[in-house]
Specification:
Helices cover about 70% and strands about 0% of the residues. The protein is mainly alpha-helical. The protein has a domain at about 25-115. The radius of gyration is 21 Å and the shape is flat.
């Protein structure tokens, strides 16, 4: 219910800001980006939503930068939009398979490692039977 309320308020503010709302403002790629933000950032936390939004916002710029710097044929360099689609699909699939907790799970592991660094648990001597 809270999510629906926030979505309604955001839609009302968007309509007020734009002065008009139409279907063309929301493309399929925008929907894919929103889903990618949730999956990549990590579901169930505000930090995950923020990390996912930051990642998804900066990711196309990284792709454009790499396409400009890497020696790719000119016909592929013009297909940045298609590369963005493929990259988002690949990154979402990789996060779903290898890191279902998203960027927030990675952040928590790194944070805990640094917090517990001097006192890491060392394996006890294992008795051989």
């Amino acid at each position: 219910m809270l999510s629906s309320t926030l979505t309604a308020v955001a839609g009302a503010l968007f309509a007020y800001y734009r002065g008009f709302v139409s279907v063309e403002a929301f493309s399929l790629f925008l929907s894919i980006q929103y889903v990618a933000m949730v999956i990549i950032g990590g579901m169930g936390s505000i930090l995950g939503a923020l990390l996912g939004a930051g990642f998804v916002t900066l990711f196309p710029y990284l792709i454009e930068f790499l396409m400009a710097r890497l020696p790719v044929p000119p016909r592929f360099a013009e297909q940045v939009f298609a590369v963005n689609y493929a990259a988002f699909g690949l990154v979402m699939a990789l996060f779903l398979v290898f890191e279902p907790g998203g960027l927030v799970a990675i952040w928590r592991r790194v944070r805990n490692w640094f917090l517990l660094w001097p006192f890491r648990k060392r394996p006890l001597a294992v008795s051989r039977q």
